[in-house]
């Protein structure tokens, strides 16, 4: 516990950002107008000028052949998501020694992906896109949409966790004010799912996982047939 | 059996994270790593590792320290060496290791780059390193449909049609699209901007039958967006509340100008009528047509398949006041004044031939001789001499007479019908001069025969004339012609005019032109033959040159072959020496120990034992 506090004090709170090399905001669109539904996911660089948003919206509507009302809807949606992200931007984020499990469980076209792995919130060099690329390469996935989907899923979860970390940092500050010099409590773990890094990386344990946990962390990739995809889609609808 | 053994091994490794060098396994097994990675040691962490993977050694986090790194490293390498012939993937490793996947990936790639894992493993090892270098990282992939992450789907049970987009556009969708959008009939238009490119085509989609308007379309004049194709227009399906008058035909076949295409049938008829009426007074014509300009009228008339004929006929009509003969009389008028002695001769010659043909069934050479005679005085003399030689001796006199007759007859005809085409005759004279007597004669014969076949009258006509001439002008005319070329002849002819039967002008004309054509054809044939010979000569020279070239090439090839053979012999020698060298190396390798996975002959049972 002592070492933990030492590490924590060594690592002061950082300004809010997505804990990856590129600070990109994951944007998810799901807009429905007059019986037409438009869903899309992509990342947005928050330092880009906001004027790009309407341009992007116009372009997208033109390319996907959506009716004109979608332009404002799309622009608004992107803008509000960006605004929300920016509202956190100057705040402190307390990541501490946190390693969070990222869980993937989704379907892209015919590829079903289920995976779980750890992500270090302090690693600001991490690259979800590179990870996704290696993933697709290792499994020989040829569908070009799978890689971006994996990267986006990682980014989305990281963003969520980062936002929670802001709240956690606030809590810590309050705690500090209340009872001077208080450590940040395990309770404030974002989402309660951060792992006890002490236990995992302590001197007594090996970083090699127990065999029985292998299955838990083993990536699973399934290729679905057309019928299965149809069935899943019907269920989703 | 084997797997369980390995499992046990792993349990051991978990307890003993690194395998000591004195482990008995390593006394028997050789693993190949690149020479550049010789720094590697199970017991120590080398400086290269420290600099390449600083994250584990700078103490930034207690989750990354040298011990953790060594565990990662040793595990990955051991995992790989379970089966070195197989390529180890990162996804396979990370499930067994606790830690941030990004740092794990770093370690993994570090080991792979140094050849400590996946070195010489089957599979795409080269490709992987290439990717790491960044070469293949940004492969451009072409998607044949819109990405499925982006979707426009109809909410089930929605009553509205999803889109009015034409079917033709959405046909470019990938086939798997339909599968994803199974619940609705709507087919999504392509996401890509290439639709921008085809914008024009899309606009020309018929609003009625949804098919592309190939040759032209009708545009609804009240708003420019309603378009129907010509097929629909003809069928009368104009759409709601619209009538045929509201549509304007728009032709967009690239080659046709708009004014040409927009000629209606009535307009064309009007144009033709007014052209017939007013001739080439285009102002009047345009006035008559009303809807078209002068220029339009002219170009339209020219484009009509018979346009130039129309123009020609109207022109003639205007000048000749409706004379029937087309174009020839016109020429006659023009040339009439230029008549000279030469042209007279031409005519004379021509006629004489005709006459000769008509009455005499004798050998052709005779008539041939006559033709050039009339061309010019001197020539005629020579020709007659030649003629005499050629013709059988019994005939010379009559022949000459006949020739004379012809001349006279011709002169007479000339007087009678001043319109005989001198120009045509001139042409013919030139042609026959070029071709030569034999050919001209045959042509003339053929011409007259054809004429006679047409109706029998001409033949008799020719005959009758012949007889009359013969009777009237025997020696006298002959002599006079010899001494005095033009004038005397003409006088004679004038005197004989009244007595002779008249050969109709058209007949003469036809005979003359037929002869001319025949002669020209013959000459053309001659020229063609000559040309053919020339071509043959040239071709043969080309062939010869090619042959020489080929021979030269063959020589070079032979030389090359020699060189190749020499090289081959050298290669064989080299191979031999290499073989012996390799034998030595293998011998030494066997002495030193055999790598397990490289040697395929090692049986699996041995592995289990190990």
TrEMBL record, chain A:
Gene Ontology biological-process annotations: chromatin remodeling
Cellular component per GO, a single term: nuclear chromosome
Similarity comment text for this entry: Belongs to the SNF5 family.
Pfam (any one): SNF5
UniProt-listed InterPro entries: SNF5
Transcription regulation among keywords: yes
Localization, UniProt: Nucleus
Keywords: Nucleus, Transcription, Transcription regulation
This protein's name: Bushy growth protein
Claim: Zinc is one of the keywords in the record: no
Record's signal peptide: none
Automatic annotation (TrEMBL), chain B:
SUPFAM superfamilies on file: Homeodomain-like (SSF46689)
Top-level taxon of origin: Eukaryota
Domain SWIRM stretches: 31-128
A Pfam family it matches: SWIRM-assoc_1
Annotated GO MF terms: DNA binding
A cellular component annotation (GO) from this entry: nucleus
Residue ranges with Basic and acidic residues bias: 340-350
Record PROSITE patterns: MYB_LIKE, SANT, SWIRM
Domain Myb-like: 262-297
Source species of the chain: Tagetes erecta (African marigold)
Key word Iron present: no
Residue span, SANT domain: 258-309
Keywords, in A-Z order: Developmental protein, DNA-binding, Nucleus, Transcription, Transcription regulation
InterPro entries found in the cross-reference section: Homeodomain-like_sf, SANT/Myb, SANT_dom, SMARCC_C, SWIRM, WH-like_DNA-bd_sf
Presence of keyword Transferase: no
SMART domains: SANT
This protein's name: SWI/SNF complex subunit SWI3A
Region (Disordered): 340-393
């Amino acid at each position: 516990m002592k070492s933990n506090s030492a590490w924590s004090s060594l690592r002061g709170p950082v300004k809010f950002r997505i804990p990856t090399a590129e600070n990109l905001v994951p944007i998810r669109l799901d807009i429905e107008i007059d019986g037409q539904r438009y869903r899309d996911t992509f990342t947005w660089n928050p330092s880009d000028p906001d004027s790009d948003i309407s341009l992007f919206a116009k372009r997208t509507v033109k390319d996907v052949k959506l009716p004109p009302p979608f332009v404002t809807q799309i622009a608004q949606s992107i803008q509000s998501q960006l605004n929300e992200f920016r509202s956190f931007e100057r705040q402190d984020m307390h990541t501490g020694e946190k390693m969070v499990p990222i869980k993937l469980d989704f379907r892209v076209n015919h590829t079903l992906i289920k995976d779980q792995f750890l992500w270090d919130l302090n690693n600001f060099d991490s690259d979800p896109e590179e990870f996704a690329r290696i993933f697709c390469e290792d499994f020989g996935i040829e569908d070009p949409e799978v890689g971006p989907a994996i990267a986006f899923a990682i980014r989305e979860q990281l963003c969520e966790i980062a936002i929670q970390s802001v709240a956690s940092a606030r809590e810590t500050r309050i705690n500090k004010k209340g009872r001077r010099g208080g450590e940040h409590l395990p309770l404030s773990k974002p989402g309660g799912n951060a792992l006890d890094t002490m236990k995992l990386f302590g001197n007594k344990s090996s970083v090699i996982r127990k065999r029985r946990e292998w299955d838990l962390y083993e990536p699973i990739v399934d290729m679905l047939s057309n019928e299965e995809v149809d069935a899943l889609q019907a269920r989703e609808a | 059996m084997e797997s369980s053994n390995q499992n046990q091994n792993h349990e051991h490794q978990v307890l003993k994270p690194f395998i000591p060098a004195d482990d008995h396994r390593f006394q028997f097994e050789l693993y190949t790593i690149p020479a550049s990675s010789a720094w590697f040691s199970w017991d120590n962490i080398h400086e290269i590792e420290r600099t390449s993977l600083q994250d584990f050694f700078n103490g930034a986090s207690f989750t990354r320290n040298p011990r953790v790194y060594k565990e990662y490293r040793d595990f990955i390498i051991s995992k790989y060496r379970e089966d070195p012939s197989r390529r180890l993937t990162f996804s396979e490793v990370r499930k067994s290791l606790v830690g941030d996947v990004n740092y794990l990936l770093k370690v993994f790639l570090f080991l792979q780059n140094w050849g400590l894992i996946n070195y010489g493993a089957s599979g795409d090892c080269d490709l992987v390193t290439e990717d790491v270098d960044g070469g293949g990282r940004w492969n451009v992939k072409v998607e044949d449909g819109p990405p499925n992450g982006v979707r426009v789907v109809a909410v089930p049970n929605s009553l509205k049609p999803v889109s009015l987009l034409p079917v033709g556009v959405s046909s470019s969708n990938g086939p798997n699209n339909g599968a994803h959008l199974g619940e609705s009939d709507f087919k999504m238009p392509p996401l890509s901007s290439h639709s921008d490119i085809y914008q024009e085509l899309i606009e020309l989609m018929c609003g009625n039958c949804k098919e592309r308007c190939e040759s032209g379309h009708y545009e609804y004049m009240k708003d420019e967006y309603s378009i129907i194709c010509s097929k629909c227009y003809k069928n009368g399906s104009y759409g709601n509340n619209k009538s045929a008058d509201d549509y304007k035909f728009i032709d967009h076949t690239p080659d046709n100008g708009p004014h040409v295409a927009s000629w209606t049938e009535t307009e064309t008829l009007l144009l033709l009528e007014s052209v017939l009426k007013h001739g080439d007074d285009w102002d009047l014509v345009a006035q008559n047509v009303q809807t078209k300009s002068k220029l339009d009228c002219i170009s339209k008339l020219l484009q009509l398949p018979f346009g130039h004929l129309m123009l020609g006929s109207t022109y003639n009509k205007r000048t000749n006041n409706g004379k029937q003969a087309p174009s020839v009389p016109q020429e006659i008028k023009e040339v009439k004044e230029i008549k000279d002695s030469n042209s007279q001769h031409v005519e004379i010659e021509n006629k004489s031939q005709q006459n000769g043909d008509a009455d005499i069934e004798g050998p052709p050479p005779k008539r041939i001789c006559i033709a050039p005679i009339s061309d010019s005085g001197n020539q005629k003399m020579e020709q007659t001499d030649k003629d005499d030689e050629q013709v059988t001796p019994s005939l010379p006199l009559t022949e000459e007479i006949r020739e004379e007759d012809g001349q006279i007859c011709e002169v007479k005809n000339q007087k009678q019908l001043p319109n005989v085409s001198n120009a045509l005759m001139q042409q013919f004279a030139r042609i026959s001069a070029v071709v030569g007597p034999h050919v001209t004669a045959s042509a003339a014969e053929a011409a007259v025969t054809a004429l006679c076949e047409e109706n029998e009258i001409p033949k008799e006509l020719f005959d009758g004339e012949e007889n009359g001439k013969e009777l009237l002008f025997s020696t006298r005319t002959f002599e006079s012609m010899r001494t005095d070329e033009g004038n005397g002849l003409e006088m004679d002819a004038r005197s004989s005019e009244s007595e002779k039967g008249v050969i109709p002008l058209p007949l003469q004309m036809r005979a003359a032109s037929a002869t001319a054509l025949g002669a020209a054809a013959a000459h053309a044939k001659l020229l063609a033959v000559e040309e053919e010979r020339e071509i043959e000569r040239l071709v043969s020279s080309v062939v010869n040159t090619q042959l020489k070239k080929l021979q030269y090439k063959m020589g070079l090839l032979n030389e090359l072959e020699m060189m190749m053979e020499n090289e081959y012999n050298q290669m064989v020698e080299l191979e031999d020496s290499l073989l012996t060298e390799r034998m030595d190396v293998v011998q030494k390798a066997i002495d030193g120990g055999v790598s397990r996975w490289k040697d395929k002959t090692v049986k699996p049972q041995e592995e289990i034992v190990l």
